Amino acid sequence: MRPDPASGVIATEREGLGIACIEPGRGRTAEVAEILRTNFGIAPPNAPRCVSRGDVTIGGIAPNAWIAVHTSAGNSFAESLRPLLGDRAAVADQSDAYSILRLTGPKVRETLAKLVPIDVHPRNFQVNDVAQTVCGYMSVTLWRLEDSMRGEPTFEIWVGRSLAGSLQEVIRHSAAGLGFVRQTP
Known about the structure:
The chain is of the alpha+beta class. The chain is built from four helices and eleven strands; from the N terminus they run ββαβββαββαβββαβ. A hairpin with a 2-residue loop joins strand 3 (50-53) and strand 4 (56-62). The termini are close together.
């Protein structure tokens, strides 16, 4: 289903992602970062930001902790990282832990402003920024992505899988009157 160009907010559920939480052992952060840079061409950020190359994105989620995402690897992504990092880091498969909605459209910032306590204006929450925050009283991770091909702001909002229905409902309700479309992947 193609979204109506007049839609204010378009929500698409992301599926098939490989997601791994990576936490280097004490004193091994630089070593783990170098392995990731060598193998994926990405220097993991030391801030709440994300960097991408090809099918892999790495986001800083805490001091010395990253979340790595592969767009199509599913659970095998974390499994592929374990031998690569060995005992230098803990790797936890999070592929089935999250429900992820990609939100775009001309009214997405207006919708998010009703739901999250952070300023999503482009001068304050820039492309590649990542924030651990709340949305409709649920703990979420909010990612700011590149603008859509139509030049509209794009965000991903991650929530624990058991809260997926509640998140979708609160976003739908917040976008009511702005032109909300739920698109299938």
